[in-house]
Amino acid sequence: MAQGPSPPPPPPPPPTDSDKTQKTSEIIGTLRPTKLFKLSRPDTYVTSLDFDDQGLLLIAACSDSSLQLYSAQDGAHRKTLLSQKYGCHLARFSHHAESVIYASTKIDDTLRYLSTHDNSYIRYFKGHSGAVTDLALSPRDDTFLSCSVDNTVRLWNLKSQYAQARLNLSTPYLAAYDPSATVIAVASASTSSILLYDVRNYDKPPFATFDMRQYDPPPAAGGNNIPEWTKLEFSNDGKSLLVTTNHVQGHLLLDAFSGELKAHLPRPYQPTWGILRSPPSITPSKSPLGQGDTSFSPDGRYVVGSSGADRDAVVWDTQGRGSKEGERKLREPADLARICRTCRVFHYMTLPQLYTNVTLYSYDSIRYSPEHGRVEGSGMGSPFVMGLNGLVLRNVSGYVKRLRFVGEWKEHDLEEVSKRGRVPDSSIILNTLVRLAIERSTNLRDFWYA
Predict the structure, then answer these.
(1) Which residue in 161, 185, 284, 407 is deepest, having the highest Cβ count within 10 Å?
(2) Taking Cα atoms as reference points, which of 79, 93, 86 lies closest to residue 48?
(3) Which residues have CB under 8 Å from 364's CB, separation 6+?
(4) pLDDT tens digits, residue range 333-392?
């Protein structure tokens, strides 16, 4: 008796964490710049960059006293906002995508709250008597910190022009919120220390102080021994604290709870800084304070930053067994990575590689995560349906060149509906979603399902 065709093999299991890590490392090694925006004049340079909360808009503060607004989604320049009278530096989005705050570099040291919609000022924050060196927005609400060479750190709220609190410290040039917005870290370079404050008790002494003198590089001949720190940043999981420096010896990755050194991120070359020259009114350092040249990846494992050469960038794997094994060099995107304060640029740089080959797995039963027991997927759909939804709705389908569907699709009420000569609505919706995903993948070369 002839036998029917054998059933298709079960779909392969989802990738493990080790597989994901290996794939991530491969992608990092293939990063290349995909878009170049030229400024108005060759001698104009960018002093700060920031993304909005959704990652759709990018604001750049430039040395010609202008703010340049870009669409990260479309890769297009949106508008130019001029601040010729006051200058601009450290432009930061508020939690509203149409407003930014920035520090003045001319006339006075006022912070300005600007509407990007009509280029009008919403509010001024006056109080600093010296150049502002860092701005840090709370990830939870409308409060923010400002650091200044007047040896103060001030706590503000966007709704009021008056400071809520002031800390008088020695050279408190850098500050950062932890992801939960309950801890404030303040770096004092002249004392080689990092102070941690409880946001709810900011008027009390710091609950922890990290002594950084043991990690300071030896002083240069004829120079002082003040370390050149340019940025302070917590990882997204709150476990690590990154201290970015200008020194050739590189950057410091600390345990955010104990202050112990977790990893040293050495530079392959002596910093030259190329196009990155700081406004003289901000700092005599070679790199603008508060901006730095490093950034965490979203998972906190990788750090991307400048190698020290003009056109190179390096990605450090903080879990690498050795400094060389944990180091990958990239070509060209350094000028962007060097001055970008947010890790989201790292995500956008990887999009062409992440979506070149897409495989979506479908299962005939609801699956649960072995880690936390919750249903797999996001929103109200399975991983398969939500993956299709992402290709249809997000601006990534143009990157797809190979698309595969693997697994089984089970319609639970098929028998009841088929008695009436109908096709289940969910099957029709799925078919429409698949067709839309394929049509939007304009560079698709290969489609396969099993």
Answers:
(1) 185
(2) 93
(3) 407, 408, 409, 410
(4) 443 343 343 445 555 555 666 677 888 888 777 777 666 667 665 555 677 777 777 787
Instruction: List 151's β-bridge partners, or say none.
Output: none
Which neighbouring-strand residues pair with 66? 82
| Distance (Å, whole) CA 405 – CA 124 | 55
Return the structure tokens found at 314. Answer: 């390096």
CB atoms within 10 A of CB 44: 15
Q: What is the pTM of this model?
A: 0.65
Composition of the chain by helix, strand, coil, percent to 5: 15, 35, 50
Comparing C-alpha atoms, which of 103, 215, 120, 286 is closest to residue 112? Answer: 103
Whether the pLDDT of residue 408 is over 50: the answer is: yes
Give the residue from 450, 7, 369 showing the smallest Cα distance to 378: 369
**105: nearest Cα among 64, 60, 163, 165:** 64
What angle do the packed helices 383-393 and 425-440 form, to 10 degrees? Answer: 40
CA separation, residue 376 to residues 13, 372, 404, 430 (Å) = 13, 10, 20, 18
The count of other CB atoms within 10 Å of the CB of residue 26 is 10
138-178 pLDDT, tens digit per residue, is: 988 899 999 999 999 999 999 999 999 999 998 888 999 99
Q: What are phi and psi of 408, to 5 degrees?
A: -125, 150
Strand ordering across the sheet containing 402-407 = 357-362, 402-407, 446-449
